[in-house]
Write a structure and sequence with these properties.
This protein is of the alpha+beta class. The chain has 4 helices and 19 strands. Strand 7 and strand 8 form a beta hairpin.
């Protein structure tokens, strides 16, 4: 009985061990099969991602090619339009229509700059000079240093054809009515004097500050021989504001909005001044231009462009409200604001049409 029990126990152990071994073998096979399936699925996923990346690259290349074709089409269209505008300007000049010639030249220049436009502009100017004739004549005091024509922007004055001629002499400013030559106002100018008490010539620079609104009045600003900045109301030439600092003679620009003047003080710091109050709005020291001798200010008074007398260095733009100083990417001998975002300039080799936006 005991032997039988022992034998039964041994048989049961062998059967259990065998059963567990079989289960372990099956589990191993299942694990291997699962790994094979997972590897296969990973390969398929990787292949799918590769195909998606290829399609993405192909789509991006197609997009870039389409964009390039579009840019080429636009460039060709602009080139054709530019050629048509320039040819129209030439035809208009031959027909003697200077206004149409200038409009077509301006349209061509907006698309891109071309040295030929400067030469053509000179032809328009020379043609216009053939027809120059004085509109008004009246006797004035001899020897003005400089002068300018001021046309008020208010509606009633425009309708009445009001315009003033302002002359700067070595010792006074004078304002005349262009309609009849009447002297409307004068104001003495303080300046440095020679040893004999006389005032040397060439010590006055004058700029117009033309008002655009119907309520504002045009102003005139000047720097006298002692370097003081003065702002006068027109046409009486009543003094509106005076700055006590010394400013560099001959460097003065005025904004069309009647609110801002730009100048350079004796230390070479570019300064924006409120034309009505004479208060300093902003000041900036140029980072690479030692002697600022030329400048202009945008019509809205927000941006100043300045340069030295030498064309060795390109001008710089200063957005005083944001305190940003930007290098102009070309050297200009002459420049002016056409509007708030466009500067028209002249290269040192005497061609007009360099545009910067």
């Amino acid at each position: 009985m005991t032997a039988a029990a022992v034998l039964l126990s041994l048989v049961a152990g062998i059967v259990g061990t065998t059963w567990q071994s079989l289960r372990a073998t099956e589990a191993g096979r299942n694990a291997i099969a699962s790994a094979v399936v997972a590897k296969s699925e990973a390969a398929r996923a990787e292949d799918a991602l590769s195909r998606l990346e290829v399609r993405r690259r192909e789509a991006e290349q197609a997009r870039q090619e389409a964009l390039l074709r579009q840019q080429e089409a636009i460039a060709q269209r602009d080139k054709t339009q530019q050629l048509m505008d320039f040819q129209s300007a030439e035809y208009a000049l031959r027909d003697g229509d200077l206004q149409e010639a200038m409009q077509r030249l301006t349209a061509a220049e907006r698309l891109s700059s071309n040295w030929e436009y400067g030469n053509f502009f000179g032809q328009i100017v020379n043609k216009a000079r053939e027809h120059f004739a004085p509109v008004r004549r009246w006797p004035v005091r001899e020897g003005p240093q400089s002068g300018l024509l001021v046309v008020p922007k208010s509606t009633d004055e425009l309708e009445r054809g009001v315009a003033w001629a302002v002359f700067a002499y070595a010792d006074e400013l004078r304002c005349y009515d262009t309609a009849n030559g009447t002297l409307l106002g004068s104001h003495p100018i303080a300046g440095s004097k020679n040893g004999d008490g006389s005032i040397p010539p060439g010590l006055v620079t004058i700029e117009s500050v033309a008002a655009k609104s119907s309520t504002a009045r045009p102003l005139v600003a000047h720097i006298d021989g002692s370097g003081r900045l003065h702002v006068h109301r027109l046409p009486s030439l009543e003094v509106m504001a005076t700055r006590p600092e010394t400013y560099r003679f001959g460097v003065l620009a005025a904004a069309d909005d009647s609110t801002s003047l730009a100048t350079v003080d004796s230390d070479g710091v570019v300064t924006v001044v409120d034309a009505m109050s004479g208060e300093i709005i902003a000041r900036k020291s140029p980072d690479r231009i030692d002697q600022v001798r030329r400048m202009a200010i945008s019509p809205d008074g927000e941006i100043v462009i300045f340069a030295s007398t030498s064309t060795e260095f390109a001008p710089q733009l200063w957005s005083w409200r944001e305190d940003q100083l930007i290098d102009v990417p070309t050297r200009l001998q002459w420049f002016a604001f056409a509007d708030e975002a466009t500067i028209v300039g002249q290269h040192s080799y005497s061609t007009l049409g360099e545009k910067s936006q």
